[in-house]
Amino acid sequence: MTVDYHAADASAREQVRSLLDRSFFVEASAGTGKTAALVERYVALVLGGRPVESIVAITFTDKAAAELRDRIRLGLEERLEGQADAALEQRLRTALAGLDRAQISTIHAFCQALLRGFAVRIGIDPAFEVEDEVAAERRFEERWRLFLDSLAGDREAVDAIGRVLDLGLTPRYLEEVARALWRRADLAQQLRESPLAAPPGEWPDLQELRRQLQEIDLGGVPEDDYLRRGIAGLADLLEQLIAAPAEDRDPRLVSLLSKPPMLTRGQARNWGGRGRIEAARAAARGVLEALQAALEGLRSAALADVLPLIVRFAHEEMVARGREGRLVFDDLILRVRDVLAGDPGARVLLRERYDALLIDEFQDTDPLQAEIALAFATDPTTGVLEAGRLFLVGDPKQSIYRFRRADMAMYARTGAAL
How many CB atoms lie within 10 A of CB 247? Predict the structure, then answer.
């Protein structure tokens, strides 16, 4: 059920408090009290008989989680004050006594707690550690260096990496790709299951490009005109490529295109009018862009050959982290998603332990986290979403974590599911 929420909207607030047997997707803009909606829901669940141990409240930073806990405490205390119903009073007092131990945290902290419970099921040490950023980076650099060293005797791998470097992509670039997949094991997993395919890089017909340049009418244009000089530089670049041995063309193309000829300047009066200079500029740009596109195509093909090596590295490292009990933050999300997706028994345990999942700032939730939320609310036997188990609050206009995989399409699909 999707609700547009505003703290001043008595009807929306009443639905949040009273319809505990329905899942909610609350959309609220900044300043309308959307976190207040989550607090009201939490308090209503307690009053409805749910112990705090069975309620999970998620937000996106440790600071926000601490603030949310304080706001929930205040909400419980306000309802306790002057409470005439003895049973409700006891529920509120019990909730307040247990609130410091309640699962009010970031998604990573929640997944860490879940993973300790699932550790034996998936073959990792329940006493695993989550490495901080400094330790994780140090580990990556050491393992990447060792992995590259291990390839020294693999002629095919060495040749594939050499081709990428010949095409102007640096060792640092490859390291950044490896770092991204090392941290994002879900992407490495996807690429392992569905490898990227790139068309073989092809050189354009250099003779045809030469012909196109030669057809540009330079008659009467002063040799010092900037556009004419740029076209002359492009013609020289092309002649060097034509003359280069086949084995030298790739690095020569990289070198020549590192400082491409300037084709943006030139005086229209030198060309007898704007129509003629623009036609000449367009023809020259077409030749230059064909060479640049060729370089990009060659790079894509070369990277497609190297990527399986990097994917293998990332996968082996993910397995090693689990075996050694030294995880990174993104491992927590992926491993919980995987165990919930592949182990019905784990979903049963989750269902038995928790009654409700409340997520603040849902617009900043990435697809893996959304999958966990939906698994939380899905009956492990029937595969049907169970009413009342999810309460999601978000504002798609406020997403601040799009760089961290926050997915507006997933946001919309989840809202539709509820």
Answer: 8
CATH number of 2-127+328-417: 3.40.50.300
Distance separating the N- and C-terminal Cα atoms of the chain: 5
Hey, how many other C-beta atoms are within 10 angstroms of the C-beta on 53?
Answer: 14
Contact by Cβ (8 Å): 142, 275: no
Reported as type and span, the H/E element at residue 114 is: helix 107-122
- 43-46 LR contacts (CB < 8 Å, sep 24+): 43/17, 43/72, 43/75, 43/76, 43/79, 44/16, 44/17, 44/18, 44/20, 45/20, 45/355, 45/356, 46/76, 46/91, 46/92, 46/95
Taking alpha carbons only, the member of 352, 2, 337 closest to residue 189 is 337
Q: Do domains 2-127+328-417 and 206-298 have the same CATH topology?
A: no
> What are the residue boundaries of the structural domains of the chain, listed by start?
2-127+328-417, 130-195+305-325, 206-298
φ and ψ at residue 103, rounded to 5 degrees: -85, 80
CB 48 within 8 A of CB 30: no
CA distance 191 to 194: 5
Percentage above 90 pLDDT, the chain? 64
pLDDT band (50, 70, 90) for residue 410: very low
Q: Is the pLDDT of residue 63 over 70?
A: yes
